[in-house]
Known about the structure:
heterodimer, A: mainly beta, about 0% helix, about 55% strand, globular, B: five-stranded antiparallel sheet
Amino acid sequence: DTAVSQTPKYLVTQMGNDKSIKCEQNLGHDTMYWYKQDSKKFLKIMFSYNNKELIINETVPNRFSPKSPDKAHLNLHINSLELGDSAVYFCASSHGQGTEQYFGPGTRLTVT
Amino acid sequence: GENVEQHPSTLSVQEGDSAVIKCTYSDSASNYFPWYKQELGKGPQLIIDIRSNVGEKKDQRIAVTLNKTAKHFSLHITETQPEDSAVYFCAASGNSGGSNYKLTFGKGTLLTVNP
Lengths: 112, 115
C-alpha cells in the first residue's frame, strides 16, 4: 500500500497554462506539506497544512494555491505557469509537527 | 531562519568502506535532525533521525551523532554496499521563536559506492 501518493507523476505543459497536482496520504497524519526540488536537487518547503489549516507559506508566488479538502488530501494548483516552475514537486505528511515526514514519489513538472 | 550546510557534495567510496557526511546548523533552537536517502526518480526516504536530547543513535550499519554545542551532526554508514548509492540529505527542525516547525534541508550529498 502506498503511504503518500501523488498524481500525476509527470506533467508537461506550456507557459501560461494552469495545472493541478494531487496528493493523498493513508497514514492517518494530520499535517501535510508541499516541497519543491529544483534541478540542483535542492529541497525547499513551500506550504504546510495542519488539520486542513495553512500554517507555513514560504514566500511562494500567489500563482501557487494549495487546497486541503480534508486531512488526507493536499492539492496544489498553479496558475499561469512559468518556465521557472519546472521542478519536481513532493508532497509529504507527518503526525503533528516536528516529527518524521514521509514523502510521496514526486511529480516532475516541465513547463515549455 | 535556519541554515543547514552539508558536506561533502559528492562522496565516492569503495564497497565495504565507511562513509561520513557532515552537517552544521545555525539555529540553536532546532531540536530534530532527520536524514533522508533519495534514490534516482524517487522521493526522499527517512533513514534515521535524532533529537537534541540524544548524542548518538544507531540502526544497523547507519549511525547519527549530534553535537549541540558545536551545532553539527553527522551520518555514518559502515560496510557500504552498492545499494547505498544515492543522494543523502540532512535536515533540521525546531520551533524557533515559537514559529511552526519547519524542516530546512542541506543541499545533499551524492554518495557513490564502487563495487
